[in-house]
C-alpha cells in the first residue's frame, strides 16, 4: 500500500513527471528528488494525465511553480503565484477596482477565464460566478506544494472547458508537525500593507497508515488609492489635458451648467476629477480553514476526505455617485429653480411663456397648471461621499472517496465532492433614482409633494454642496444582491498498466485510464428590488435582476499511452498518447472531446513531442440565462458628437436614424468618462463552441550537462463558434467608416440629446452574445533551467519566456479579424505583449542562505490603430516601451527550525507608463495606466518568518 501514500487526495493520479523536463532548474532539483522517491515506490504524480506509470511521460507541456518559488514570492494570494507568468494574461485581480466583482480569475493565453480550469489536487472547485469562473482567493496558499499549469489544452482529461489549459494547485500530503508562517509587506510610500499568517498542524497515526492535517489562515490587504500616487491624482484625457467626468458640480441641465454667481445656465461647464477616489489595490480580508485526512483500512484500500472553508471580504471604492445624464421629470414648480432656469427648461421643451409661468406657480401636482418636463441632469452627489461596495464570499467544499489496488498494476479511485459559494454584494452611498425623483417633486423647500417614507426635498443648485444631510439620508439607501453557486461531482476511474503486456519493440507496458463523471451546476442571483431595477441604483451601470439556472453533465473518458519502440538505434523512446471524453450536457446535448499525440526521443535526453486536441465547450449558466440589461462599455470618441456631423449629410442621417433628435446635431455630448451605454445579456439559443489546438516542441535534458533542462513548444489554438460579444470597435468602425447598415442598426441613441449616455431609454450599443466569434492565438513557450554546483553551494538559473505570434478575434462573419497582439485600447484588453519573460538567478550559500534576483520583462506595446480614440491621442500615449522589473529576495535559516525571508519588489521603483484614463475600459485602464500589467504601487518591502517543528 506504500504507493497510495503518493497519490493525490481526491483525484485519480495526476502527474508531476513532466516537471522533470519542463520546470525551471530551480524547481528541477526538488522535483527530481520527488520523482526519484516516487519511482522507488512505483508511483509518479502527473498533472494533465490520469495515467500514473512513472515511465510514461505525457506529450503536453506543463509549467511548474514549485515550493521554493512560492516561498520566494511571499505570496498573499494564489493569483500572485500564476498571474505574472509569461503566457498568462491579467485576469480580474486586486488591481481591478471599477469592473471587479469581488473575486480573482485566471486567464490563460488571453482566451478568457471561462476557457480554463482551476483545480485543487486535480479536482474541480465550486465556481464563484454565474459564468463558472473560479475565485483564486479561495486557494489555501499555505498548503500549496506547487502549481502545475498545463498550457497545451487538457479538455479530454478534465473536461471541455479546459480549452486553454488548467492550473492545478497541488497541496502538501502526509504533512506531519507544525508549520507557522507570518508575512508582512508595505509599500515605500507607507501604504498598501499586506499581512498573512497561517498555522498548519499535521500528524501520522496508526504506524503511518493514516494522516490528518489542519491549516488555518488569515490574510489582510490594505488599500492603495490612486490619489496617493502623483501620476494618477488627476484623470488625464487622451490629448493630455486634465479632465474627468461630465457629471460634475454645480448641476448641469440639458448640457448647460448652473452658474452660482448669476443663477443662470451657461454653455461652458467644468468636469469632475474622479481619479483620487479609486483604488490601485483593493482591500481584502480573508479567513480560511482547510483539513484533510486519509486512512488505509486494508493493505489495498484507503479512504480519504478533505474540506475547506473560506470567508473573504473584498472592498471597492469609486468617486461619489451622481445623476449621470439620465432623463428626469423636472417639475417646473421646483422651489430651488429660479425664473431664468425655469424659462430655459420651458424653451428646451417647447412650453409657451404663459404656461411656463403658471406651472412655476403651481402649488402641488393636483394643481391644473402643474407641469413636468423631461430633463437630462448631470450632478455629482459629492455630499454622499465615495461609492463603496463590499463583496463578502462564503465558500465551502467537501470531498470524500475511496481508492486502492485492484491488482498489482491497476488502481481505482471513486470520490464525490460538493461545494457552495455565496457572494453577497452590498452597495453604500450610491443612492436610489426613484427617491431622488420623489425629492424633486417638492411643494416648497421643506415639503415633498409625496411625503411618504420621510421624503426631504433635494436642492441640486447652489455651489455644489447644497444637498442637506436630511435629503441625503432619504435617498441614500443601501442596495445589493447575492450570487449563489453550487457544484456536485461524482467521479470514478481505473488506471494503471497492462503489466507484462507491451507493444512492438517496447519493454514499458501500455498505460491506461478509464472512468466516468457526473457533475451538476446551479447558480442564481438574488437581488433586492433596487438592484434588480433598470436605472434605480444611481451610478451602477447595469442592474442585476434575479434569475437562476442549472444544468448537469454525464461523461465517460479514456486515456492511453502506448510505448511503441524503446532502446533501438535512432529510437531511444517512441510513444503514442491518446484520449477521448464523451459528454452529455442537459443544456446542449452530446459532444466528444479527444486528443492524439506522442513523443520521439532519438537519443537519451533529446525529445520531440506533440499533441493535437479537439474540445467542445458548452455555454454556462450566465451565458444562457443572464437577463438582458443596459450597462456600460468603453468608448472615448463618438463620431456623432460635437461638430463631427455638421456639413456631412450622410453622417447626419445616420445619427438621426439611430435616435438623435435633428436639433441635437452639432451639440451631441461626448461620451461621459469615456463610457457609453451597452445592452447585453444571456442568450438561451447559444450552442457549444469548438476548439482545435496543437503543440509541438522539444525537450532537451542532455546527460552530458547535468542540471540543464530546456523545453520549447509551439502552440496554436483556434476557437470556432466562440460564445462572444462584439467589441465597441466591431460596431462603431463598420457603421461610421463603411456606413454598414447592419452595424449602424446596433446603435441606439438618447432620444433627448442624441448621446450614447443616459438611462434605460438609451440602449447604446447592442452587444448580443452569439456563437459567431472566432478566436485564434499561437506562439512559443521557452523554458530554460540550469543548476551548477559551486565550492560555496550552487547557482541556479530559471528562464520562462513566451513569444506570441498572433491573438485574433473576429466577432462575426461580417467583422474584421481584429489583431490584438501588442496593442492596447478599448477593443484589446487585457494587454498581450509579443514577448515576455521571467528570469530568476539564485545563489545558494550552503543550505542556509539563498539570494535570488527575479527579472520580469514585458515587450513594448502600442495603441490599437483601429481604436476609435487613436486619432486624438498624444504621441506619448500611443505606445509603451519595453518594461523591466527586478525583485530581490534573500532567504536564510536562523536556526534549524526558524527561517526568514526578506524581499524588495520593484527594486528600482519603476513608475508605470502614463497613457490617460480614457484610452481603454475601466477594468484594465485606470489611474492613467494599466495597473494589471504594470506596477502602479511602487517599491515594496516584504518579510516572512517561518517556524517548523
Explain what the structure shows.
A hairpin with a 2-residue loop joins strand 36 and strand 37. The chain starts with 18 loop residues before the first helix and ends with a strand. The chain is mainly beta and 949 residues long. It is 10% helix and 44% strand. Mean pLDDT is 90; it is low at 1-45. It has a domain at 2-171: TonB-dependent receptor, plug domain (Ferric Hydroxamate Uptake Protein, Chain A, domain 1, Beta Complex). The strands form eight sheets. The chain has a 22-stranded antiparallel beta barrel. The protein has a five-stranded mixed beta sheet with strand order 1-6-7-4-5. It has a five-stranded antiparallel beta sheet with strand order 14-13-12-19-18. The chain has 13 helices and 46 strands.
Q: What ranges have pLDDT less than 50 throughout 5 or more consecutive residues? A: 1-45
Mean pLDDT: 90
How far the N terminus sits from the C terminus, by CA atoms, comes to 27 Å
By CATH, the architecture of the domain at 2-171 is named Beta Complex
Number of helices: 13
